[in-house]
């Protein structure tokens, strides 16, 4: 006799940052009776083998907004990473040619909200991933299916069925794709994308520097793309760098000494001598936005729904906004007696998130195009615009509150409230 598919209230494909955060948020909001399946392609490290985390070699660091910090605090994750979170006290922007001997700061502002908290914290990616995974493991209502991958799904008025690569099937009232930019389940749901590739490559590494950064982040706008210096705890910084794809290929082919010289050329020398402290990583840059965020008993979150240029470091923050909105929409409806995949909750989630995501995607795309040009007239216009903002405190405060994720119709979790 064929084995009956396991039954869950919610099935999440992808144990990404957004996927794990959503599983925790739903479990916290709706209690231990909620049955959640979290499908992860990677096998979890054995607790007693000394095996490293799946994320141990991730060189990235995330610029987490104040709203994202509130969410992580609400789901019990923040306290375990707070020791490694560097508050960003101020931000400086420059716009200069690569060979400029001096890079004047065109815009400088304090990165503190009206409530006196840092609008941004920089957190190493691998520490956040491990903290989320530990929180997932602590929830009795979350079943981790790993290693496993979802290959397709179908939905009816009554339920949805997810097919796994090993031949198993699971049933759920709601299926959520958190499986990244090349989402298999998004394709299975026949949801199309708007998007394009950039002729740029993203590069990330960590450096140590001689002088204290004092919590200040720096964004150099260079012709090949933005070069961001994100402060980490200690005299360290995460370099998040967008470069012309052909030039990036040349740079990435260099040995460590040659690669460090290229970093130094862009770093600006303001923090003294630098040394490489971690591996380098790279990936091609692109933009996409899903034409719909929901289908029958189905929703997209995170990179499965939207992929933005890393120029403002907002990719994960947008994903955590999805988490907060979907958690609230589903929890509110389930408390009224509906199941997790009810269409009213999904439509509410889409209305809440798609417009904001579209505006953010278009804004980051436009900023990248505007600043990745060395044309004299454009450079003059940019310098004039940044100079105006630098002289208008109200505009600076608006940018800080916007980056903190505290403007507009904010879901409860982003304000640090329980759902």
Describe this structure in words.
The protein has 419 residues and is α+β, with helices and mostly antiparallel strands. It folds into 2 domains: 1-46 and 79-84 and 125-192 and 291-372, FAD/NAD(P)-binding domain, CATH 3.50.50.60; 86-122 and 199-286 and 374-408, D-Amino Acid Oxidase, subunit A, domain 2 (D-Amino Acid Oxidase, Chain A, domain 2). The protein has helices at residues 17-30, 66-74, 125-138, 184-188, 245-252, 256-267, 315-335, 343-371, 376-390, 393-403; strands at 6-13, 36-39, 61-65, 86-87, 90-95, 105-110, 120-124, 142-145, 150-155, 160-164, 169-177, 193-209, 216-222, 225-232, 236-244, 274-276, 281-290, 294-295, 298-300, 306-307. The strands form 3 sheets. Strands 5, 6, 12, 13, 14, 15, 16, 17 and 20 form a 9-stranded mixed beta sheet that branches. Strands 1, 2, 8, 9, 10, 11, 18 and 19 form an 8-stranded mixed beta sheet that branches. The protein has a 3-stranded antiparallel beta sheet with strand order 3-7-4. A hairpin with a 2-residue loop joins β13 and β14. α1 (17-30) packs parallel to α7 and α7 runs antiparallel to α8 (343-371). The longest helix has 29 residues, at 343-371. It is globular. Mean pLDDT is 91; it is low at 47-52.
Element layout with pairings:
Layout: E1 6-13, H1 17-30, E2 36-39, E3 61-65, H2 66-74, E4 86-87, E5 90-95, E6 105-110, E7 120-124, H3 125-138, E8 142-145, E9 150-155, E10 160-164, E11 169-177, H4 184-188, E12 193-209, E13 216-222, E14 225-232, E15 236-244, H5 245-252, H6 256-267, E16 274-276, E17 281-290, E18 294-295, E19 298-300, E20 306-307, H7 315-335, H8 343-371, H9 376-390, H10 393-403
Parallel strand pairs: 1-2, 1-11, 2-8, 5-13, 11-19
Antiparallel strand pairs: 3-7, 4-7, 5-6, 9-10, 10-11, 12-15, 12-16, 12-17, 13-14, 14-15, 17-20, 18-19
Helix pairs in contact: 1-3, 1-7, 7-8
């Amino acid at each position: 006799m064929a084995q009956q598919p396991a039954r869950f209230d919610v099935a999440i494909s992808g144990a990404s940052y957004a996927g794990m955060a959503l599983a925790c948020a739903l479990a916290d909001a709706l209690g231990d009776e909620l049955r959640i399946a979290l499908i992860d392609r990677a096998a979890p490290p054995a607790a007693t083998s000394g095996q490293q985390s799946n994320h141990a070699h991730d060189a990235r660091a995330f610029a987490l907004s104040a709203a994202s910090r509130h969410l992580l605090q609400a789901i019990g994750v923040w306290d375990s990473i707070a020791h490694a979170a560097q508050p960003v006290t101020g931000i400086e922007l420059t716009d200069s040619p690569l060979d400029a001997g001096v890079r004047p700061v065109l815009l400088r502002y304090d990165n503190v909200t009206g409530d006196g908290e840092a609008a941004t914290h920089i957190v190493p990616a691998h520490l956040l991933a491990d903290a989320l995974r530990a929180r997932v493991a602590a929830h009795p209502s979350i079943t981790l299916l790993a290693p496993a991958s979802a290959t397709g799904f179908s939905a009816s008025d009554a339920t949805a069925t997810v097919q796994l690569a090993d031949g198993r099937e699971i049933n759920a009232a709601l299926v959520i794709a958190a499986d990244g930019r090349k989402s298999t389940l998004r394709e299975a749901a026949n949801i199309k994308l708007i998007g394009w590739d950039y002729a740029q490559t993203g590069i990330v590494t960590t450096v140590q520097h001689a002088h204290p950064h004092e919590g200040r982040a720096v964004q150099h706008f260079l012709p090949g793309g933005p070069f961001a210096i994100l402060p980490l705890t200690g005299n360290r910084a995460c370099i998040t760098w967008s470069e012309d794809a052909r030039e990036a290929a040349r740079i990435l082919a260099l040995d460590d000494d040659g690669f460090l010289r290229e970093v130094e050329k862009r770093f600006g020398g303001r923090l003294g001598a630098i040394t490489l402290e971690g591996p380098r990583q790279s990936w091609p840059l692109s933009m996409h936005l899903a034409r719909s965020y929901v289908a029958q008993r189905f929703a997209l979150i995170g990179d499965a729904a939207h992929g933005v240029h890393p120029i403002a470091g907002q990719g994960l923050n947008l994903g955590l906004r999805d988490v907060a909105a979907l958690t609230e929409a589903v929890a509110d409806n389930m408390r009224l007696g509906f199941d997790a995949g009810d269409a009213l909750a999904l439509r509410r989630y889409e209305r809440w998130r798609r417009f904001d995501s579209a505006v953010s995607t278009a804004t980051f795309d436009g900023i990248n195009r505007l600043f990745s040009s060395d044309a004299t007239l454009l450079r003059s216009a940019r310098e004039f615009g940044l100079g105006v903002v630098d002289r208008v405190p109200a505009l600076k405060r608006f940018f800080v509150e916007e980056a903190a994720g505290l403007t507009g119709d904010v879901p409860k979790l982003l304000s640090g409230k329980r759902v």
